[in-house]
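Please, structure for the following, as tokens.
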Amino acid sequence: MRLDKYLKVSRLVKRRTVANEACDAGRVLVNSRPARASLEVKPGDEIELRLGARTLRVRVLGVDPCVAKQDAAGLYQILSEGPAGR
């Protein structure tokens, strides 16, 4: 699944266009490398997302393209969360 779509389906980002913009600006890293929105995400990948004053690191557990809102958090495991620049 594409990175921008994964970020939206997992509800880490509210809109896919915001996910695209974050990738284009270099605020999304996958496995410690800057990632484009078109990158294919697979289970086991680690995503670092810097939005505003927050940095979030997660591990991908699943890539189901259609998930109910209450099940979206099951697609990832939070590794760390904190202010940007950490």
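The beta strands are 28-30, 33-34, 46-51, 54-60, 76-83. The CA atoms of residues 60 and 76 lie 5 Å apart.
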